[in-house]
Amino acid sequence: MENAGRHMAEKISERVSLDQHITIVIGGGNNGGDGFVIARCLKEKGYQHHACQLVPDQKIKGDALYHKQVYEQFGGMIERVETLDQLKEKCASSDVVVDAVLGIGITGTIREPLRRMIEVINEAEAVVFSVDIPSGLPANENEVVDMSVNADYTFVVEAPKQSAFVEGLAPYYGEWEVVSIGIPLAAFSDQKQMRWQHMDVQRTFPKRTSFSHKGSHGKGAVVGGQLSMPGSVALTARAALRSGAGLLTVATVKDNIPVVANQCVEAMYHVWRDDQGILIDDSVSSLNHYDAIAIGMGMGRADESQKLTLRIVNEINRPVIVDADGLYHIKSDLEVVRARLAPLVITPHLGEMAMLTETTIAEIKQAPFSITKQFAQKYQVYVVLKGKFTIITTPRGEQVVTDTGNPGLAKGGSGDVLSGVILAFMMQHNERLPAIANACYLHGLTADMSITSGRHTETDLLASDVIDELSVAFRTIV
């Protein structure tokens, strides 16, 4: 508690000047204890502040009571706030409000008078900093918000909560930052959910040796592209090559090859349909000579395309990434997916995940972790649920979140690029989860760096721009 409060006070002081007035609103439990420590540390730093206790004295117990007493012995004054008018007066005269009212474990209806006091905090013109989690906000997904503080900043203790990555709950946090309080990494060793960060990419990123050759980094194939959508396979192929694939073959319809080859001269090509549109017999069996295959991009949803996808999933004993139209193809026979022995990665967006699970987009948004976990474990696949927060789930139920990326990626072709990066990394990493997580992280990081550098905006960023700038993101890692 001392560590948490002290570190949060430090973070607040980085953003608040000494001439600004701060009100710390304090509830019971550990969050209240953090509030007393913050009040003491801000007093040490010379800040004008009020420590306002919103709950009766008997609700301040244990460590929180100890830190209340330390604050008082240090000369701190605690004001017992019992009415809404008192709280309104304090908030109105403050530049900053520190929310240390309620912590994790809150579900259901917020009781009075705290409910209306949260409303007062939200109505204040002051900047609001929340301790660990905005008061009233559930920590987990699939919960309905009754009443919550709308924070401008949240300082999360040690590790982010699940709700920080759920669309309907994340906005309450405002900008958030993890504050370490000294909990050893070993304490998290048995956790099956984690946020994938820059240091994780650096730790797991594959190193090339001076004796590397093109065969060392994978021979991949991209299957897709009907006549009306040749660009999709071109994007996937270019992204895979830019991400380090040693050799790459694009399997597409004959008339697409000149178009794709004009954009991707480093790839090789294979015709998987004859001039009458009939599947060439050896097209599927030949894929067993590759190290990994990506399928579905720009493929269309015709019966012939569906048969090809299902044959590849059923007959090819190599890692397969299924995206776009391929996801609609496998929906007709998910038992084929379950029966596979080699890894299968699916990369749905919210609508495609709703289609696969026969739920609604709203349901996916409310419970993305549990729905993707149930699907991944049932069908023994890797699920990459794309969005502002990309959730990666393994067949064993392990889950990783990447939160790089920006609205510039909300354009056609971005998913095709991601599939290409995943394909390349699946052939270069020894472990599947780091390969997929690194691909998602770097795909988003590239988009972020394109915006922050000023080379692009969220409006003009194209999928092809992301491919061109992957090297910039790679340089930050290697």
UniProtKB/TrEMBL annotation:
Question: What CDD domains does this protein map onto?
Answer: YXKO-related (cd01171)
Q: Name one GO biological process term.
A: nicotinamide nucleotide metabolic process
**Binding positions ((6S)-NADPHX):** G298, H349, D416
- The UniProt record lists the keyword Membrane: no
Q: Which cofactor does it need?
A: Mg(2+); K(+)
Q: What is its EC number?
A: 4.2.1.136
Keyword Magnesium present in the record's keywords: the answer is: no
The record's catalysed reaction(s) read: (6R)-NADHX = (6S)-NADHX; (6S)-NADPHX + ADP = AMP + phosphate + NADPH + H(+); (6R)-NADPHX = (6S)-NADPHX; (6S)-NADHX + ADP = AMP + phosphate + NADH + H(+)
Q: Which GO terms describe its molecular function?
A: ADP-dependent NAD(P)H-hydrate dehydratase activity; ATP binding; metal ion binding; NAD(P)HX epimerase activity
Q: Which residues form the YjeF N-terminal domain?
A: 1-189
Please share the entry's free-text remark on the cofactor.
Answer: Binds 1 potassium ion per subunit.
Question: In terms of domain of life, where is this protein from?
Answer: Bacteria
What Pfam families does the annotation carry? Answer: Carb_kinase, YjeF_N
Per UniProt, residues of the YjeF C-terminal domain are 199-477
Instruction: Cite the binding residues for AMP.
Output: K386, G387, K388, F389, T390, G415
Assigned keywords, A-Z: ATP-binding, Isomerase, Lyase, Metal-binding, Multifunctional enzyme, NAD, NADP, Nucleotide-binding, Potassium
Q: How does it assemble?
A: Homotetramer.
Member of which family?
Belongs to the NnrD/CARKD family.
Q: What does this protein do?
A: Catalyzes the dehydration of the S-form of NAD(P)HX at the expense of ADP, which is converted to AMP. Together with NAD(P)HX epimerase, which catalyzes the epimerization of the S- and R-forms, the enzyme allows the repair of both epimers of NAD(P)HX, a damaged form of NAD(P)H that is a result of enzymatic or heat-dependent hydration. Bifunctional enzyme that catalyzes the epimerization of the S- and R-forms of NAD(P)HX and the dehydration of the S-form of NAD(P)HX at the expense of ADP, which is converted to AMP. This allows the repair of both epimers of NAD(P)HX, a damaged form of NAD(P)H that is a result of enzymatic or heat-dependent hydration.
Name of the protein in its database record: ADP-dependent (S)-NAD(P)H-hydrate dehydratase
